[in-house]
């Protein structure tokens, strides 16, 4: 053919003995550089992860402890009225000046004169104003307490709490920090009496909204998020599985099926805030469902989670080999029977994993919930999903907007809790996948 | 079956005088994880000849071939032992550079795998990365010559900038051969190069292999005994990871020594 | 009966029907000779389907239609004076009448009896307030009879609905039960129902899209009837003023350009950081890393993707923003001696940087998928010619994967543009038009949140603009997504 034109590139081995220069050194340098870029990129990514988590955890782990002061409280009739009066009308008990009880107790504990206005107000600044509720509940639960004296652990104010946790720079002049020298003196005194302690902060998990950091908690938010997750699970799982079964097992290849597919893939990438607008316009304005309700939040999150579940379920269905279907069909099972008796059970672990991951996504979603009014100051637990509530990520957003120092700690603490929930869900999903994964 | 092969042999190239040895392999073993795929193969590959590796599937012939230019390096779990010498140098010597080695020992794969680039760029790829051409003219020259040597030039000379993936299967495989030639390797390894091709394309490629022998040392793995008989001068028969027998092709097909070879070429297994 | 109770009753009827159907069908099996087509469980499901599906459909239609019918009836009898007023006032009036009407049903019977057409509205309002129901101050005496009408109509409508729905359920169950016969193809019919349900479930995706488009479309059209599209799309000043309800004063400027600029600027900064990092990480993972490394690093990077964006926002707000601000103060201190920070805590850079962290795993896992779907034979071909790994990546794999990577980047861009929580906390709310990345800028999503949180007053340009913004955002991301999905589909087909 073309042997006659043989030239340099077809030289024999003998002539080629002095090895060709193919720039090995230079090329390997490029190779090393390229590889280094990859390693650097991964290192940067992981460094960001470490920085993010360190920042959150270092700011937030203290939120799980709360400074409390043991104060001897005298439940005096002078303030509360007699038990007999209380039985007749609770109004006096409800409106009584509980903070005064706390202040008097603390003043007595510290041994300051009740006339020293400055000293009394400094001491008063150490206790949270949330004591009102604590003491009121004590008295309301047990009227016989009136007239007695009892040691009660009271929440310290957020300033004292921050000071105890070393979050203030005490070397700056007194007027530039939120806690005075006198108060520091009192703290030392309380410490020496063993009357001040950092205890585990259950309130962070149980309290509702509050404008004071030390009595603000995630109780309402956790319940709200829980309701929403239930709704998402109850709606998105069956609808998602049904839709996947149709698309994977029944749908003919036509324009309509194509349209659904494009739709699902697109919905998975639509900005979450758009779903918030949908929820506001359709569920609240059109259907007239209540604002701030977990029900609406759950519906919006369901629509957002559906694509995730559908995509995961379809992958799980596709992974079931066709031979299983043929076997069942060959025995005379109908298509529906084949799917529900054989294919679906085999795909269940994959579906479950996808569902958990979808739920985890929904749990962390914030933007759409802002628009349907879940940014609300809700102090009481919602009894049903129709009552106002907040959600974990929304609570984080609201706290992040608070200027007070103590709220930064609370916010970080709340983020740790949210991340812990997400970690548990994702680890469950990984565990399920490892445990039940079947290779065909 | 036998007559068929005999007939093929009669038409095939005559066995030539002994050639110098290009590659020497001694006790080559390959493990894939815990599984041993080759149990010590010792084989000499003569220069400017076609050496065919035959044997039933799973016998280790492709594994052996991939050792010769260290393509097994790309498989994490593969471990290669023994000695493989190219012109007296151990190719698994840490001082030997794998890139340089592969530039000297090229490879053509079972399934045609043109890059999703133009025909020209496919062939020019090797010379470009190795810096073999100093100018555009030189590169053109190399590409055209390689295509000509691969017998593809006439079919594609007017559409060099069309994608290589648009060619027919046989053309794609010849493009891959041209791509390998363009690097001017000393040895070309071919892993069942015709298995994905139709008979007419196969015939063209076989013809090409025979012509290439003049300038290159060729090692070809093939499933087809007729093909081995048609194109090779030396045949090595593999069986279950062992080298069962090796000898001049003519002798292997007319008068094999090994029982397994006899069984295989008479079609008892395969 | 409440809707919930009605549904329970219907379900109970269905269940009872199923039970009877099952027994009937079992009894049918007895006569020899004819083999029944379907097993008893299908007959039971058949009866239940007849009982439940038509009645619940009717219930749904009734629930939607009834308020519409009542509203049109009541509005028809509004006094002429009200009808002459603007649509807005009429809507407002209807809202009050409706809440009065709804309030009536809460009153105990003895108080309810005292309410007559002649009762002044302030007395009714007092009654309702005692029950904890506030009444708008704009209420008028003519509303009382209409409220009574609403209450009556609602009462009868509900009663009729209860009766008709339950009757239909019973009739359905009876009809289904009568149909049971050995040759009834109950299984096929039940499977038909199942398939219908499956189709309905998959069309929810379409319904959602339609819902999104229409919910925003109407409000957007309403908005553009007050503010001209040209003013919105080409205006360079964003300054919506909150004005009192109904006042016709200046509604402020609704210039979209500063928001769009901020959105694109922040997304661009984020992409500029995230794309090289994500891409190189993906390449390393797909082409260099051994299995052990990959099994550790990949999940770790994916943790970044699993972190909610609100957490990134907080990180930007309390850590990254202040850090950049202090850093810039130090730098300017060293350079000029004046410790003035030139990076603001809320800035394009802060938002872009933090958004980039969020996008890294997104870019890397999408690209990883794309790169690993490039066939191994191409790698072998290149390596077999003596190319190094990096040459193979740069000259063969990336060109082959290019369409896929482009689509991954488009999806990433769409994600960046629609991101909300990071920018809400990190970018600031000032609608600046600047090219200084150290300044604060704001985005479309920030403004949607800002316009719709807090006390809402519907039907004012200030809130309607959020829907116009949302619509624009939806259209932008829709184009990016659909184009990206189209490319990736073509790409996957090529290698299948």
H/I helix tally of chain B: 11
Count of individual beta strands of chain B: 10
CATH class of chain B: Alpha Beta
Biggest sheet statistics of chain B: 6 strands, mixed
From the 3D coordinates, which CATH architecture of chain B would you assign?
A: 3-Layer(aba) Sandwich
How does the major sheet of chain C shape up?
Answer: 2 strands, antiparallel
Labels describing this entry:
heterotrimer; A: mainly alpha; MetI-like fold; 2 domains; three-stranded antiparallel sheet; 19 helices; 3 strands; 5% strand; extended; disordered N terminus; B: 270 residues; alpha/beta; Rossmann fold; six-stranded mixed sheet; four-stranded antiparallel sheet; 11 helices
Structure description:
Chain A is mainly alpha-helical and 440 residues long. Chain A folds into 2 domains: 64-201, no CATH class; 219-436, MetI-like (MetI-like fold, Orthogonal Bundle). Chain A contains 19 helices and 3 strands. Chain A has helices at 24-60, 77-80, 83-88, 91-95, 98-110, 117-124, 131-141, 158-164, 181-192, 203-206, 219-250, 255-267, 272-286, 294-319, 322-330, 335-364, 367-371, 392-400, 405-436; strands at 65-74, 149-155, 196-200. A 3-stranded antiparallel beta sheet of chain A has the order 2-1-3. Chain A starts with 23 loop residues before the first helix and ends with a helix. Chain B is globular. Chain B has helices at 2-11, 61-68, 98-104, 119-130, 136-149, 153-156, 169-181, 199-212, 225-231, 249-254, 259-265; strands spanning 21-32, 35-46, 50-54, 78-86, 89-90, 105-108, 187-191, 217-221, 234-239, 242-248. Helix content of chain B is 38%, strand content 25%. Chain B is built from 11 helices and 10 strands. By secondary structure, chain B is α/β, with parallel strands linked by helices. In chain B, helix 4 (119-130) packs parallel to helix 7 and helix 7 runs parallel beside helix 8 (199-212). A 6-stranded mixed beta sheet of chain B has the order 6-7-8-3-9-10, with helices on both faces. A 4-stranded antiparallel beta sheet of chain B has the order 2-1-4-5, with helices on one face. In chain B, a hairpin with a 2-residue loop joins strand 1 and strand 2. Chain B has a single domain (2-265), classed as P-loop containing nucleotide triphosphate hydrolases (Rossmann fold, 3-Layer(aba) Sandwich), CATH 3.40.50. Chain C is mainly α and 496 residues long. Chain C folds into 2 domains: 3-184, no CATH class; 252-494, Orthogonal Bundle (MetI-like fold), CATH 1.10.3720.10. Chain C is 76% helix and 1% strand. Chain C contains 18 helices and 2 strands. Chain C has helices spanning 3-29, 40-76, 80-84, 87-106, 109-114, 121-130, 143-179, 186-226, 229-234, 257-288, 291-306, 309-336, 348-372, 376-384, 389-418, 421-426, 444-452, 461-494; strands spanning 238-240, 252-254. In chain C, 42% of the residues are buried. The model of chain C is unreliable at 244-248 (pLDDT under 50). The chains are: A mainly alpha (440), B alpha/beta (270), C mainly alpha (496). The interface between A and C is large, with 85 and 90 residues. Chain C: It holds the Pfam family DUF3708. Chain C: The chain crosses the membrane at residues 6-23, 44-65, 155-177, 197-218, 264-288, 300-323, 343-363, 396-417, 464-488. Chain C: Residues 260-484 form the ABC transmembrane type-1 domain.
